[in-house]
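Input (structure):
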């Protein structure tokens, strides 16, 4: 999509070249989750906002065009500076005449559903084939209590979704938190613009909790105060206009996971500036998991270094860090002993069924894996080379590419799928690679 895009994004496959221990400093791109949050809040704020250090990827580009489709803001991407400018046009928010297509961008699509509640008229929002299977039902059921009618066109709880808006009154609603935290985040962000105070009650357990903390942090950064009782209920007082101005996106912790894993599996070293223990991104926690597996980790406020060593298996509940489970699973394949990753049912409804995908692909590499509905048990060993299927899932492609730094003959099919969250991934992998070309 970008002029500087890597030709490997167009290839059918890339073969990763193994190397000895890496020794590098590298930075992942801006956080996907924060870029999406700032875009949503800026679009609702009615004030000019410059999002600096933004992630420019398929997902955030879909979202930047989608918010502009309501006509009340214009969004301009600066490729050189990695920034997105959101400017009010002076027009009211209106439902776009055309269907809004969101590709595979789950978080933006879920944020957009509630946002369409503010737009006069009927907005139809859809996505790619996988997105048309991903669950939205809990969010659709929560919106009518706030005055917004939102239905799945096919009656199956998945996109296409039709939202009749201009009626986001606020009030009191209930939401389930067991399928995705994105529903709660979507309600929190979009309630800022409601006519009344909004109380959001989570009726069961909320998964992926760090993402809700990130939502509240992004709102606070833009001057919006939320009252909360833990993860059970949240109140968004009305009449708060986000402040606009400049916001800076920190590096992406899920993207960082591949850099940490590269050092772990090659028994090398990596230093990552700009993100560390001060971050609210839950995925930073992978550094500590890798420490338990035998790596030496230094987690400072705003940087992380990791030195790989002999790896051992770990038993770990990954409910709060779903996106880095494929990364951890690949590292576990190289560890001595067993790794049990539990409480990860949500992986089955992401870009692909990630429990099934990781299980299939590790087995293809000769690793024993047992899967259950919400867990994986990986028996570490010596993975062998294979042609890895990636299921149009960026995280499967990036995790298994890391395996190729250690194992001969790892070919990643459809390498372009990394563009969902990390279009520069293959170039960053080159930066880590002592031979300077990580793929052949
Ligand atoms: O709010 C967010 O930015 C995200 C929340 C998580 O989803 P779930 O809450 O569905 O686990 C995560 O998987 C996704 O990549 C980003
Ligand atoms: C699950 C993910 O994204 P989303 O739900 O936003 O599509 C992801 O990036 O791993």
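Output (sequence):
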């Amino acid at each position: 999509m970008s002029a500087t895009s890597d030709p490997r994004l167009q290839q059918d496959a890339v073969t990763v070249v193994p190397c000895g221990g890496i020794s590098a400093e590298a930075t992942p791109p801006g956080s996907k989750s924060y870029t999406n949050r700032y875009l949503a809040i800026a679009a609702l704020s009615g004030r000019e906002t410059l999002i600096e250090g933004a992630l420019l990827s398929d997902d955030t580009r879909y979202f930047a065009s989608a918010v502009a489709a309501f006509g009340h803001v214009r969004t301009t991407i600066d490729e050189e500076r990695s920034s997105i400018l959101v400017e009010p046009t002076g027009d009211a928010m209106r439902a776009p005449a055309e269907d809004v297509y969101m590709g595979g961008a789950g978080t933006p699509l879920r944020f957009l559903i509630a946002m369409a509640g503010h737009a006069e008229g009927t907005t139809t929002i859809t996505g790619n084939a996988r997105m048309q299977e991903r669950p939205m039902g809990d969010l659709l059921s929560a919106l009518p209590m706030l005055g917004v009618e939102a239905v799945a066109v096919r009656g199956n709880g998945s996109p296409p979704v039709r939202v009749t808006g201009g009626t986001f009154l606020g009030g009191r609603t209930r939401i389930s938190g067991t399928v995705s935290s994105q529903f709660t985040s979507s309600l929190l962000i979009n309630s800022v613009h409601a006519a009344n105070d909004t109380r959001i009650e989570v009726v069961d357990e909320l998964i992926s909790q760090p993402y809700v903390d990130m939502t509240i942090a992004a709102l606070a950064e833009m001057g919006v105060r939320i009252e909360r009782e833990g993860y059970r209920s949240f109140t968004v007082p009305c009449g708060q206009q986000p402040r606009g101005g400049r916001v800076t996106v920190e590096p992406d912790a899920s993207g960082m996971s591949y850099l940490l894993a590269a050092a772990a599996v090659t028994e090398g070293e990596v230093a990552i500036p700009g993100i560390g223990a001060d971050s609210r991104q839950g995925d930073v926690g992978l550094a500590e998991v890798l420490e338990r597996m035998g790596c030496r980790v230094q987690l400072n406020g705003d940087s992380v270094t990791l030195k790989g060593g002999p790896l051992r298996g770990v038993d770990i509940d990954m409910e709060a860090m779903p996106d880095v489970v494929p990364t951890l699973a690949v590292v576990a394949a190289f560890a001595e002993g067993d790794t049990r990753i539990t409480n990860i049912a949500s992986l089955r409804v992401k870009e692909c069924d990630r429990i099934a995908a990781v299980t299939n692909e590790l087995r293809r590499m000769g690793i024993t894996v047992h899967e259950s509905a919400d867990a994986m048990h990986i028996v570490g060993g010596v993975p062998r080379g294979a042609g890895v299927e990636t299921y149009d899932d960026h995280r499967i492609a990036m995790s298994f590419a890391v395996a190729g730094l250690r194992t001969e003959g790892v070919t990643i099919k459809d390498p372009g799928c990394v563009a969902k969250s990390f279009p520069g991934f293959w170039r960053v992998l080159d930066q880590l690679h002592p031979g300077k070309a990580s793929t052949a």
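Notes: Residues 32-45 form the longest helix (14 residues). The CA atoms of residues 275 and 302 lie 4 Å apart.
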